[in-house]
Every structure is written in structure tokens, then in C-alpha cells.
Amino acid sequence: EIVMTQSPATLSVSPGEGATLSCRASQSVSSNLAWYQQKPGQAPRLLIYGASTRATGIPARFSGSGSGTEFTLTINSLQSEDFAVYYCQQYNNWPPLTFGGGTKVEIK
Amino acid sequence: EVQLLESGGGLVQPGGSLRLSCAASGLTFASYAMSWVRQAPGKGLEWVSIISGSGASTYYADFVKGRFTISRDNSKNTMYLQMNSLRAEDTAVYYCAKDLRNWAGAFDIWGQGTMVTVSS
Known about the structure:
Strand content of chain A: over 45%
Order of helices and strands of chain B: EEEEEEEEEEE
Oligomer: heterodimer
Structural class of chain B: mainly beta
Shape of chain B: globular
Number of helices of chain B: 0
Radius of gyration of chain A: 13 Å
Strand content of chain B: over 45%
Largest interface: A-B, 24 and 23 residues
Helix content of chain B: under 10%
Structural class of chain A: mainly beta
Number of strands of chain B: 11
Distance between the termini of chain A: 36 Å
Order of helices and strands of chain A: EEEEEEEEEEE
């Protein structure tokens, strides 16, 4: 099973600032990595797939990078609606499909 | 617009059974694999099971293998999760999720979730 590790667990950011979230895989997942955003009481929403491709309707301030075992989600100029929990997920070697533990982006 | 609507959650005693449904609309349902993903209260996301577009292929997480059964009825645009021998640790919101393609393993559309509580 591929273990996904996200850091930090919590990130405190002021509105308008940028944020960098990290995700590490226990073995290579090539570029088969997705990022999801989840707000309280809501279902997750796909942000990025293929490590760097934005999903339909996702603003350009969200960008993904990386391959192999190290991945980054960058959010430029955080808006109020961006404060949420973010999860990475690998879909290269499954079953099982595995998620990271999440990074909570909170208002500083 | 693609929509997924789960139903069937509720309170069940340990050892009991429950069947969840996921009704899909706005897509060619049989063209996509579908998954169940769960989230225990205050915890992260956990993949449970996947079924191919035709229903011929299924996989399960180890922690539900032998207890849960995933299925689909493409004539009704509906996926199911039969959950037997339920345990307290199965308590979670259960989401159905549409595959990005057929059998990619990433999820581009999610339902709103249905809560399953296993307690005496």
C-alpha cells in the first residue's frame, strides 16, 4: 500500500498571501496524483489531477507540481473561500487508492 | 450537470446491515467507474470500494473485504453498497464518487454523502 504523507497538518495564512502544501508518497506514483479541497459540511472537490492539470472550473491561482514521490499544491493570493482542508490522493498503484491525512489552511 | 445523490444511511446496531444507494444523473453512467469513499467524524478521507463501468470488476479496501459488496444497475443509473457485519469503526459519512475516466482512480464528481452510524 502506498502511504501518502501531507505537511504541514495546519497552515495559518493571511488573506492575500500565498500557501504551499506538500504531499509525499512512500513510493513513486509517477504523475498520478490528485488534490481535493473540502470545506466543512461539504463533499470534497477535485482541484488538480495528473499532478498539475486543473480540473474544470478551478481558478488559475491553484497550481500543482511534482512527480514521483514529491508533490506541491500552491495557492496564490488566498481568497476567503480557499480556507479549507486539502487532501492529496494517489491513483498510480491500486488497490487500494490512498489519501493523505490532509492539510488545514486556516486564517491567520 | 452531473449529479450524484446518496441515500440509505442511518443508525444501525453492531453486526447489522445497511444498503446505500447512489443515484446518478447527467452522465452516461455505464461509461465510468464509480467508487465509495468514507470519512469518519473529524477524520480524513478513506477509499472503500470501486466498480467498473460495466460492473464486471470490483475492488475493496482490506478493512471491508468480505463484509461489503459494491454493485451497480446501469439501467437505473444507480450504484449500491451492501454493508454487512457492521462495526462501530464503520461509522462515517459515505460518499459516492465518479471516476475521472473509466478506471482512472481519481474522482471528479462527488455526492453530498450519507451518514452511517453504527451504535447500540
